[in-house]
Amino acid sequence: MPESNAGRCDVVLVVDDSPETLSVLTAAIESTGATVLVAVAGEAALTLVQEVTPDIVLLDAMMPGLDGFETCRRLKALPGLADVPVIFMTGLTETAHIVQGLEAGGVDYVTKPIAPGEILARIRVHLANARAAQGARLALDSAGRYMFAVDPTGAVRWCTPQAAKLLRDLDPDEAGEPALPPQARAWLRAAGAPLTLAAPDGRGIQLSWIGRVGREEILLRLSRIAGDEIAHLRGRFGLTQREAEVLIWVSRGKASRDIGEILSLSPRTVTKHLEQVYAKLGVENRTSASALVMRALQDRGG
């Protein structure tokens, strides 16, 4: 386990009530240059992570008091811990127990007695996967993308800052973390055409399905529908509602196929609308149409 790009060593939290297991794991992990944090009970682990955020957690499934399954669920509910991989360590090999660990939020499990070489290999794999996912999310954040991910129940797993703002715009009275509106949860099960949601300010926000990321994450995109801009283009150029909607998305650089997905139209229908738009604007292509849109919206602002 190499050091991170910032020069910081990996931090591994080991949660187990067995002194022998703690001794073996601490020696093996520290030999790689990583830092080991130790907790002998679930409650102690929950207290420790309030001070230090680990990069990965090795968690004993069966402990007195708070067992590993419940400890994992509580860890995953804490801010900043949802994406930290958890590997269960257990003497239990029944399928039901393995499933229970995965459902609690674990990404993997190893059986006791622990083989140091095996656990180190699994740590390397899951740290690499976690960093790749984090890197992708940071890239989305820096690109200003309105994207977020939910689990199959609709609970938000992560979101870019831009998406978080739009989600809060949908329910400004919600003081907690960004959440998917109830009507969107029903839509999620069908995963059909984009869903238009109404914000309290009267402007629409469109929710689109992008795809699945693994088994537990569904990637979604938000986009604000500029209703006032559409109304202005309708009046300025004598367009229908649908023509103005198509034109807005053309001016934002969307291809006909993308516009069709956004507006629930076939690409052929989008092309027909564009033909009418070009005729009404007196232009022959997207570039000229987009230039007129920008000028019209700037004139409105002035």
UniProtKB/TrEMBL annotation:
Gene from which the chain derives: cheB_6
Keyword annotations from UniProtKB, A to Z: DNA-binding, Phosphoprotein, Transcription, Transcription regulation, Two-component regulatory system
A Pfam family it matches: GerE
InterPro entries: CheY-like_superfamily, Sig_transdc_resp-reg_C-effctor, Sig_transdc_resp-reg_receiver, Tscrpt_reg_LuxR_C, WalR-like, WH-like_DNA-bd_sf
Domain Response regulatory span(s) in chain numbering: 11-127
Protein name: Protein-glutamate methylesterase/protein-glutamine glutaminase
Entry keyword Transcription: yes
Residues covered by the HTH luxR-type domain: 232-297
Highest taxon in the source lineage: Bacteria
Post-translational modification 4-aspartylphosphate, affected residues: D60
Keyword Thylakoid attributed: no
CDD domains recorded: LuxR_C_like (cd06170), REC_PA4781-like (cd19920)
